[in-house]
Structures are given as C-alpha cells and as structure tokens.
C-alpha cells in the first residue's frame, strides 16, 4: 500500500465502530496471552522445583 492509501485506510478504520471493536478484541486477546504465558512460566518453575525436590529426597531401598 502506498503511504496515502494507508493513511486513508487508518482514518476509515478509526471512524468505523467495527474496526475499533476488532482492535479492542485484539488488545484483550494479547493481554490474555501475556497473562497465560506469565502464569505458565511461573507454574513450570514451581513444578520443576517440586519434581527436583521429590527426586532428591527419595530414599533408595
């Protein structure tokens, strides 16, 4: 797209309520993805520590 056509597209998107809804939904989806990744990273670290502790604390019979 040429710069002028891109500017016209962005202007139309800003005036359209459908474009605003799509942008809002995109931002919500991105926020949910970041929150999920953060939670999964923390959970993975905790699970790794739990498995490490359980394997080192087992007594060999």
**Percent of residues in β-strands:** under 5%
Q: Any low-confidence stretches, pLDDT <50, length ≥5?
A: none
Q: What does the overall shape look like?
A: rod-shaped
Alpha-beta classification: mainly alpha
Tally of alpha and pi helices: 2
Rg calculated over all Cα atoms: 24 Å
Count of the separate structural domains: 1
Secondary-structure element pattern, one letter each:
HH
Biggest sheet character? none
End-to-end span in angstroms? 71 Å
Query: pLDDT average, as an integer?
Result: 79
Number of strands: 0
The residue fraction in helices comes out at over 70%
InterPro entries: Flp_Fap
Protein name: Flp family type IVb pilin
Transmembrane segments: 21-45
Keywords: Membrane, Transmembrane, Transmembrane helix
Textual characterization of the structure:
- With 61 residues, this protein is mainly alpha-helical.
- It has one domain (3-56).
- The protein is built from two helices and no strands.
- It has helices spanning 3-15, 17-56.
- The protein is rod-shaped, with a radius of gyration of 24 Å.
- The N and C termini lie far apart (71 Å).
Which features would summarize this protein structure in a list?
61 residues; mainly alpha; rod-shaped
Secondary-structure blueprint:
Elements (H helix, E strand, L loop, with lengths): L2 H13 L1 H40 L5
Keywords: Membrane, Transmembrane, Transmembrane helix
Protein name: Flp family type IVb pilin
Organism: Sphingomonas horti
Overview in brief:
This protein has 2 helices and no strands. The chain is mostly helical and 61 residues long. The model has no long low-confidence stretch (mean pLDDT 79).
């Amino acid at each position: 797209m040429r710069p002028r056509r891109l500017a016209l597209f962005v202007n139309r998107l800003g005036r359209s309520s459908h474009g605003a809804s799509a942008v809002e939904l995109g931002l919500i989806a991105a926020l949910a993805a970041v929150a999920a990744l953060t939670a999964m990273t923390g959970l993975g670290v905790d699970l790794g520590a739990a498995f490490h502790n359980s394997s080192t604390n087992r007594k060999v019979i």
